[in-house]
UniProtKB/TrEMBL annotation:
Protein name according to UniProt: Multidrug resistance efflux transporter family protein
Organism domain of life: Bacteria
A Pfam family per the record: EmrE
Species: Rossellomorea oryzaecorticis
Signal sequence extent: none
Transmembrane spans: 31-50, 70-89, 95-115, 136-152, 158-177, 198-222, 228-248, 288-307
Keywords in alphabetical order: Membrane, Transmembrane, Transmembrane helix
InterPro entries noted in UniProt: EmrE (IPR032713)
Length: 335
């Protein structure tokens, strides 16, 4: 339950991304600057955090020993996540990008077979491929129906080009973000904490962000002071606070695929925060009846995920207790 609350808090801070990215695009800012500035601004904050905690040497050592996985999965988890999202903001409103992004709750569930887990058998520990948790998948699809209901009233009058440019990049991002996050958890295998992992992934992608920033300078010149300020806000709110909260939540359940899917499903609440933000900032109209019904579906889905997670935890505890009893019964009697 604690990890799901952290996930919901993270989604609230993540919502700032969709709102301010759209704001920057409406004011004429380049998506190339919006994407690169966020991560470049994150670097000094993360350096300070890791230095204060006195564990930078460990991060650099891990990266030096295994550079290719760090470069690959950091690129997948950060660059292929955020660059497409900022690009999509240039072609569609925040609600469309945030709504499409909710595919990540299903994507995270479907990624299970790409990972292995250790199982104890009579012949010892063996690694087996994880299975798709169909109960979590069903609940995630239920939440996705609520997201779709929210989008229906807003989708009227949109061109095919706007829908394609605003959706396809976000679909790519929706799969790359959980994939990169999970693969990096697998690479570090608990040797680094969340702050170290976010710092390492950010440093690993700095060369790419510098290239994107250079492309932004060639294409649009220097960013405006407004875009710089808004990018800084996004870097702190979404890049530092939200990312660390979300990664802490996923780290807590990294060895349990079903619970991990439940935590990733908390990102569905971003739609609610984005909708509220656009009403307050852009004076967007109040949600239609179908959108309100969709909100209700999302809330019910999150409750179901919580109950499912609690049930899985209780069953796991019972199995562990039963295993302990069996072990005690198998031990020889000692006086």
């Amino acid at each position: 339950m604690k990890e799901m609350m952290l996930g919901i808090m993270a989604s609230m801070f993540f919502a700032v991304t969709f709102i301010l990215n759209r704001s920057m695009e409406l004011s004429g800012g380049s998506w190339l600057w919006s994407s690169s500035l966020r991560f470049l601004f994150m670097v000094p904050f993360l350096v300070l955090i890791v230095m204060v905690r006195r564990n930078m040497k460990q991060v650099l050592s891990e990266m030096w020993k295994n550079p290719l996985p760090w470069l690959l999965w950091s690129f997948v988890g950060f660059v292929l996540f955020y660059a497409p999202i900022t690009y999509a903001a240039a072609y569609g409103p925040g609600w469309l990008v945030a709504g499409t992004w909710q595919l990540t709750i299903v994507a995270g569930t479907l990624l299970g077979p790409l990972f292995m887990k250790e199982v104890i058998t009579n012949s010892g520990a063996v690694k087996v491929r994880q299975k798709i948790p169909f109960r979590s998948l069903f609940i995630s699809l239920f939440i996705l129906c609520g997201v779709i209901l929210i989008q229906i009233p807003n989708a009227e009058g949109m061109s095919v080009n706007m829908i394609m440019s605003g959706i396809i990049p976000v679909v790519i991002a929706a799969f790359c973000y959980p994939l990169g996050n999970r693969k990096m958890m697998e690479v570090v295998d608990g040797r680094l904490d969340t702050f170290q992992r976010v710092f390492g992934m950010t440093i690993a992608t700095v060369p790419i962000w510098l290239l994107i920033a250079s492309a932004g300078f060639i294409d649009a010149g220097l960013p405006s002071s407004s875009q710089v300020l808004q990018s800084l806000i996004v870097a702190i709110s979404s890049g530092i606070v939200a990312t660390i909260l979300f990664f802490i939540a996923t780290d807590m359940v990294r060895n349990h695929h079903g619970k991990l899917a439940s935590v990733e499903a908390t990102q569905s609440t971003q739609v609610l925060f984005v909708m509220a933000g656009e009403i307050l900032i852009f004076s967007a109209p109040l949600p239609a009846a179908s959108a309100l019904f969709g909100i209700g579906v999302i809330v019910i889905g999150m409750v179901l995920h919580s109950l499912n997670q609690a049930g899985m935890g209780k069953l796991r505890s019972m199995n562990e207790a039963a295993g302990s009893d069996d072990t005690r019964q198998s031990l020889p009697f000692q006086k």
